[in-house]
Design a protein that fits this description.
Layout (H helix, E strand, L loop, with lengths): L5 E5 L3 H10 L5 E6 L2 H4 L8 E5 L4 H11 L3 E4 L6 H14 L2 E6 L11 E3 L2 H9 L4 E4 L15 H4 E5 L3 H10 L6 E3 L6 H11 L1 E7 L7 H11 L2 E5 L7 E2 H12 L12 E7 L10 H9 L2 E4 L1 H5 L8 E3 L3 H9 L6 E6 L9 H8 L5 E6 L4 H9 L6 E5 L7 H7 L2 E5 L5 H11 L6 E6 L7 E5 L1 H4 L8 E6 L30 H11 L6 E5 L5 H9 L4 E6 L2 H14 L4 E5 L14 E4 L6 H11 L4 E6 L2 H12 L3 E9 L2 E6 L2 E6 L3 E8 L14
Parallel strand pairs: 1-2, 1-4, 2-3, 4-5, 5-12, 6-11, 7-8, 7-10, 8-9, 10-11, 13-16, 13-17, 14-15, 14-16, 18-19, 23-24, 23-26, 24-25, 26-27
Antiparallel strand pairs: 19-22, 20-21, 20-22, 27-31, 28-31, 29-30
Helix pairs in contact: 3-4, 8-9
Length: 683
C-alpha cells in the first residue's frame, strides 16, 4: 500500500479531473499541475489537495519534482501536449520517480469519406485542392500554419479557447471578427452542427481527440452538415488507459472501486424552490440543497439560495444544463431549482424528458410550495373551485373562463400584463368582477392589492405577479346552458347578413366539432357561426374569412364582446385568403362569392379528410354543389332542407312569419381520392 504517500498529477483534461476527484479527500497528499486557469475548472476542493497553475519548462518541472519528492507522478495532459509529456517523463526518470502516462480513450473508427493526415501542414496541403469555408478546431498553437492556405482570410474560421491571451494571439495572427470563434468546449453535436451551418463550412479540421475531447460529436456534425472532415492523427505514445490507471490506484492504494459497472451514479434533484423566499423550502428540498455540489437554475431562483454557499450554474434551459454537466463530471450531486412547485406550470416536465435517458444519472423530483397555495392562503381564499391559468410565456383565453368560473387564478406574463387583463375584462363587459393582485410573493417587496378592472386598468406590477379574478355572476352560479344556439339578438348585426339561430343550431350539429379543431368559417358575415364554434372550447381555433370590410368590423366587435382570443379574422376573398392558414379539420361555408368549388378544392388540398357543412339558399348553388358531390371526391353526404317560421305579435294575436328555406349540406373528404381539376363548379 502507498498510504500517506505524495502524488503529483499533471492535469487539465477530463481524465485529469476524474483522477483528481478519485484522490480528493484520501490520505494521499496530492499536487495538481495545470497550465491555465481554464485547466483549473472542475477540479475538486479538498484538504489533501493543492493546485499549481502556470506553464513550466523542462528545468522548472525537474526542479519541482526534485523539491516535492513524489512517490508517483500521473501524466493526464492532453494527447497533443507532446512536449509537456516528454519533459515530465524525462524529469521523473532523472529524479527516480515512478511515472504513469494516462492515455485518452481513442474515438470510434472513422467512417468512409474522412481524410486522415499526420499534421496541420498536411491538412493545409489537402485544403489547397478543395474549395469552401473551413472550420478549424485544432487550437491556437498551430493556427499560424493555416496562413499558408491561399485566401485563408476568407476561408478559415478558427475556434479557440475563450481565454484573453488566446484571443489576443489569434487576432495578432490576423484571425478576428466572424472568423474567430472563442468558445469553451467540449461541444455537443448540435452545437457543432449549428456552427458548421452558420458559416457554410465545406470542411472541418480536427484532431483525433477521442471520446472525452468530443471527436464523435464533431464527426456526426460534419456528416449531417455535408462537410468533409480532415482528421489529424494523434501522436503515437506508450501509456495506460484511464481505467487501467484507476485499477492501479485501487489495487495499490485501496481507495475506491473504479470499474465502469461500479461507477458512482450522479444524483440530480429537480426541486420546487417555492415562490421565492428560502423560508418556504420544504425540509426535503433544503436537505438536498445543503448536501449538493452545484445549484442550477434561473438567476432569480439561484440567487435566492445563496445562503447554502454552493457553486452556481445560472441556466434554466434543460439542454444547456445537461451539456454543462456532461463536461463537468466532478459534480456528482446536483440540485436544479425551479420556481414554485414542480407540477404547476413548471419547467420540470421538459427537464425530466431531457434527462430521463442520461446514463449513470439518478433523478429525484421534490415538490415545493406553489404560488397558488401561497397566494390563496395570504388572501384567505380557498382554491378548490378556482380555474388555474398562466399568461407567462403563453397565450390563454381567460375571458370564457372568467364568465364560467367564480374564481380564475392567473400567473402574470410581465409588468404590463395587468393592464391587458383589465382591458380585456372591460371590453368583454366584465367590469363587475373583483381583482386581487399579488406581487413579489414571499419576498421583501411582497404586496397584495384588491380592486376592480377600472381601478387597475392603468396599473403596472412587478414582473413576479399573480391575479385572482372573482366573478359573482359566473355561469356556475346559474343553471348552465349545455347546448349551442345563441339568440340572434345577442350579436351586433347592422345590415350584414347573418346565419339565423335555427340554421346555426343544425349546421353546428352537422359540423361535428372536436377538441383541438381548426375551423374555417368562409363568408363569415357577422361572425355568428365563428362565435358559436369558438365558444364551445378554448382548444378550438376558428378562422373567420370575410371579404366585406364592414362585415369584418362587425366580426371584430362580436369577437371582443364574447372575449374570444381563439377566433382569428382573415379579411380577403376565398380561396386566396386560405393560402397561408393551417390545414382545416372543419369547414363551414356560409357564402362563397361564386367560388364554392375552388374553396372546397383548396380545403381538401390542405386536408383530404376535412369535414364540411355548406349553407345554400339558391337552386343554382345547390345544383353546382350536387355536381361536386357526384364526383366521388367526398363521402358521407347528407342534405337537409330547413324551413323555419317565427311568431310575430300582431295586436292580441301571433302571426307565424316564414324565413327563407335553407339547404344544409354536409359531407367529408374522401381522404385517399385527390380532388380533380375539372371539379371547380362556380355556383
Amino acid at each position: 500500500m502507498m498510504e500517506g504517500k505524495k502524488i503529483g498529477l499533471f492535469a487539465g483534461t477530463t481524465e485529469g479531473r476524474i483522477l483528481a476527484r478519485r484522490l480528493a479527500g484520501t490520505q494521499m497528499s496530492l499536487d495538481i499541475f495545470v497550465a491555465t486557469e481554464y485547466g483549473k475548472e472542475g477540479l475538486p476542493q479538498a484538504g489533501n489537495l493543492k493546485i499549481f497553475c502556470g506553464r513550466m519548462d523542462e528545468a522548472q518541472i525537474a526542479e519541482m519534482l526534485k523539491e516535492r519528492s513524489y512517490d508517483l507522478v500521473l501524466d493526464a495532459t492532453h494527447p497533443y501536449a507532446k512536449l509537456v509529456s516528454e519533459n515530465v517523463k524525462k524529469s521523473c526518470e532523472h529524479a527516480g520517480i515512478r511515472y504513469l502516462r494516462v492515455l485518452r480513450e481513442p474515438g470510434k473508427k472513422t467512417s468512409d469519406g474522412i481524410l486522415s493526415v499526420d499534421s496541420v501542414e498536411e491538412a493545409v496541403l489537402t485544403l489547397k485542392d478543395q474549395e469552401g469555408a473551413v472550420l478549424v478546431t485544432t487550437g491556437s498553437k498551430e493556427l499560424h500554419k493555416y496562413k499558408n492556405l491561399p485566401r485563408w482570410e476568407e476561408r478559415i474560421y478558427a475556434r479557440v479557447l475563450s481565454l484573453p491571451e488566446v484571443v489576443s494571439h489569434a487576432a495578432d495572427l490576423g484571425f478576428y471578427g466572424s472568423h474567430l470563434i472563442a468558445m469553451q468546449g467540449p461541444f455537443s453535436m448540435e452545437m457543432n452542427l449549428a456552427l458548421l451551418k452558420s458559416i457554410g463550412a465545406k470542411w472541418m479540421v480536427t484532431k483525433e481527440s477521442g471520446k472525452a475531447g468530443g471527436f464523435e460529436e464533431k464527426e456526426e456534425a460534419a456528416r449531417r452538415a455535408g462537410a468533409g472532415l480532415i482528421v489529424i492523427g494523434r501522436p503515437k505514445e506508450d501509456g495506460i488507459s484511464l481505467k487501467e490507471a484507476l485499477d492501479t490506484l485501487e489495487r495499490e492504494l485501496g481507495l475506491f472501486p473504479c470499474h465502469e459497472e461500479q461507477k458512482k451514479l450522479r444524483k440530480v434533484y429537480v426541486l420546487g424552490a417555492g415562490p421565492g423566499g428560502s423560508g418556504l423550502l420544504t425540509r426535503e428540498a433544503a436537505s438536498a440543497l445543503a448536501g449538493c455540489e452545484l445549484i442550477a437554475g434561473a438567476k432569480r431562483i439561484v440567487e435566492g439560495l445563496r445562503e447554502f454557499g454552493k457553486p452556481e450554474l445560472l441556466e434554466y434551459q434543460p439542454e444547456r444544463i445537461l451539456e454543462y454537466l456532461r463536461t463537468h463530471e466532478e459534480y456528482e450531486n446536483v440540485c436544479i431549482a425551479l420556481s414554485g412547485d414542480v407540477g404547476f406550470y413548471s419547467g420540470a416536465k421538459k427537464l425530466l424528458q431531457v434527462f430521463e435517458h442520461e446514463p449513470d444519472t439518478e433523478l429525484s423530483v421534490l415538490p415545493g410550495i406553489s404560488s397558488v397555495s401561497y397566494f390563496f392562503a395570504r388572501t384567505g381564499e380557498s382554491w378548490e373551485d378556482a380555474r388555474l391559468l398562466s399568461l407567462h410565456g403563453r397565450e390563454a383565453d381567460f375571458i370564457p373562463e372568467v364568465k364560467k368560473f367564480p374564481k380564475v387564478f392567473l400567473l402574470a406574463g410581465g409588468s404590463d400584463t395587468l393592464k391587458e387583463v383589465c382591458r380585456r375584462l372591460l371590453d368583454a363587459g366584465l367590469s363587475g368582477v373583483e381583482l386581487a393582485v399579488g406581487e413579489n410573493l414571499s419576498l421583501p417587496g411582497e404586496r397584495i392589492r384588491k380592486g376592480s378592472p377600472k381601478e387597475f386598468k392603468d396599473c403596472e406590477t412587478a414582473p413576479l405577479a399573480v391575479f385572482l379574478i372573482k366573478n359573482p355572476e359566473a355561469e356556475e352560479h346559474r343553471e348552465p346552458v349545455l347546448t349551442h344556439g345563441l339568440d340572434d339578438e345577442v350579436f351586433l348585426r347592422d345590415k350584414v347578413p347573418m346565419t339565423k339561430m335555427e340554421v346555426r343550431a343544425v349546421s353546428l350539429s352537422k359540423l361535428k366539432l372536436t377538441a383541438g379543431a381548426v375551423v374555417y368559417d368562409v363568408g363569415a358575415g357577422t361572425g355568428s357561426v365563428s362565435v358559436e364554434c369558438a365558444r364551445l372550447s378554448g382548444s378550438i381555433k376558428v378562422f373567420a374569412i370575410e371579404r366585406n370590410h364592414d362585415a369584418v368590423e362587425l366580426i371584430r366587435k362580436n369577437r371582443e364582446k364574447f372575449g374570444l382570443s381563439n377566433l382569428e379574422i382573415v379579411e380577403g376573398e376565398a380561396p386566396e385568403a386560405m393560402k397561408d392558414l393551417p390545414a382545416p379539420t372543419h369547414v363551414f361555408i356560409g357564402g362563397s362569392g361564386g367560388s364554392m368549388g375552388d374553396i372546397i378544392k383548396k380545403a381538401l388540398g390542405k386536408n383530404p379528410a376535412a369535414r364540411f357543412v355548406v349553407n345554400v339558399i339558391t337552386l343554382e348553388s345547390m345544383a353546382a354543389l350536387t355536381e361536386i358531390m357526384k364526383t366521388g371526391q367526398v363521402e358521407e353526404e347528407e342534405i337537409v332542407q330547413l324551413s323555419a317560421a317565427r311568431a310575430k305579435k300582431a295586436g292580441s294575436s301571433h302571426l307565424m312569419m316564414g324565413q327563407n328555406p335553407v339547404w344544409i349540406v354536409s359531407f367529408s373528404g374522401a381522404k385517399e381520392i385527390p380532388f380533380k381539376e375539372e371539379c371547380h363548379g362556380r355556383p
